[in-house]
Amino acid sequence: LLGRLLVILFGAGTVWLTYLTVRRLGLSRNLGLFAALLMAVHPAFVVESHFMKTNVMLTFFMMATLLAAAHWIRHGGDRRAILTGALAGLAVSMKYTGALLAPTMVLAGFLAWRRRHETELEAVPGDRGAGKGAAARAVRAARAAQWKDRAGDHL
Which of 102, 35, 32 is CA-nearest to residue 65? Predict the structure, then answer.
């Protein structure tokens, strides 16, 4: 009975994580609700939720890993990287097919690294943080205008 309750909690958590992941990816609330509904009524997921099997817990940890990876890509940081890796490790510990997250982890690491370095390149020297976003946009606009002028000279 305790095992079935645990699987039910992981199943409900997976539905919630599905909604949160869709929202984190910048999609609409309605699409998040629809994705969560599809997860909740998916026949294989419902059947697996009736038995004490690792597939539901694997799905939970895979969804949690994807959500953590989205946070890591957007915000960066070592803590988010460690959390994403720990969740992926828990997914693999549930069932070996959790290793399918490996390419996702590599991609998330690359995107987080790229975002961090793009932010560093966009930083304006001498800016102390006030208006940093506006200053960076102004620098990008000036660079774009410069390239447009150069391209126009050669036409």
Answer: 102
pTM of the model: 0.70
- Tell me if 73 sits within 8 A of 114, measured CB to CB: no
CB 20 within 8 A of CB 35: no
- Residue 69, token pair as written in the block: 């990876």
CA–CA distances in Å: residue 124 to residues 9, 107, 116, 127, 136: 48, 28, 15, 6, 6
- How high is the pLDDT of residue 45? 79
* Distance, first Cα to last Cα, the chain: 76
Contacts of 97 (CB under 8 A, 6+ apart): 58
Average pLDDT taken over every residue of the chain: 81
